[in-house]
Amino acid sequence: MGIDQADPARRQAGERTSTLPATVPVAVVGAGQSGLAVGYYLRQAGVECVLLDAGSEVGETWERRWDSLTLFTSAQFSGLPGLPFPGDGRHYPGKDEVVAYLRDYAERFDLPVLPDHRVLSVRRDGDGYLLSTTHGDCRAGQVVIATGAFGIPRLPEFAAVLSPDVPTLHTTEYRGPAQVAPGTVVVVGDGNSGRQIAAELSTTHDVVLSCSEAVSPPLPQTVVGRDMFWWMSVLGVMRLPVSMQAPDPVVGDRVPELVAAGGIRTVGRITAADGAELLVAGGERVKPSTVIWATGFRTDWSWLDPEMLDDDGQPRHTEGTGAVPGSYYLGLYRMRTRGSALIGFVGRDAEHVATALVATARGKDTTTTPPTTEGQAS
């Protein structure tokens, strides 16, 4: 099922499917990078589907991130199946470029996105699924849960006892230095997001970066003139499974040089709060004027049928294929490989899931064809 990508009169994403269907062969929950990627493969295979998204527009989650955010993958390794990321492949895209790319992707491939359709619950219904949304119910023969790895901001328990007089922002609320009051900013969390924000704030504020005990391996963005992800792809690293316990690498980190120059001070893990002060493991006290929580995200799967979850409340699946027939997952952190939640690598998992899904759909409808990788960016 092809589409003329050069057609100047291509429709706006979601225009083709403007109302929630009562029934559909496949419902995809989430129209972020994961949902769009699997939607691409389903459309290529001729499988009718709908992409249900809580946001008002494609790319809204990216749009809400801080203003200076840049990907740590270059454009060459930031594209979805069938459409390379535009511009110089060596360029590191900013978040606004990602938003524009995702919206163009949905439009270009005429993906049936329904915005403002938050899925409230997914329940088994005979041999299919009943999805309750903010605009009514939809029954699907198969369902792909593509809501991603980064759902609800996670805060440490001691955040609740920090004095309310100290302004705090999670990374999802941070936009830029102008938003932060003068004084000492404590960034709690030293992953890629925490380090990017700390580096940006160091030009306007006194910054204290709290580092965890786990050592995140540093990776340069380029090695011998090549993007680090080129090397990781060539060597097969991005296709290998990885332990959930292994720390994420920090890519293109500027913090060491800023620490050496006196622009950032690092402390150990913060373990508690006492009034307006934060307590560092080892006894040091830090009094912040503002705290930035770069403490990641947690997931809440309570809206899924209990049959779809394990004893810990996590989805029951094997490499994206659900334990409950007809259910699939995509975009989960390290679901199959290190790249499972990265924009430029989720396409491999999307193809894997779509192939399994189409095989099931073909058993019910012989008009479907296997998904194709034709035109996929390398």
Q: What is the oligomeric state here?
A: single chain
- The helix-and-strand class reads alpha/beta
What would the principal axes of the Cα set say about the shape?
globular
Distance between the termini: 21 Å
Note poorly predicted spans: 1-15, 374-378
Task: Name the average pLDDT.
Answer: 87
Radius of gyration, in Å, reads 22 Å
Percent of residues in helical segments?
10-25%
Q: Give the SSE order as H and E letters.
A: EHEHHEEEEEEEHEEEEHEHEEEEEEEEEH
How many helical stretches?
Answer: 7
Largest sheet geometry: 7 strands, mixed
- Tell me what portion of residues adopts beta-strand conformation: 15-25%
**Could you give the count of β-strands?**
23
Properties at a glance:
single chain, 378 residues, alpha/beta, seven-stranded mixed β-sheet, five-stranded parallel β-sheet, 7 helices, disordered N terminus, disordered C terminus
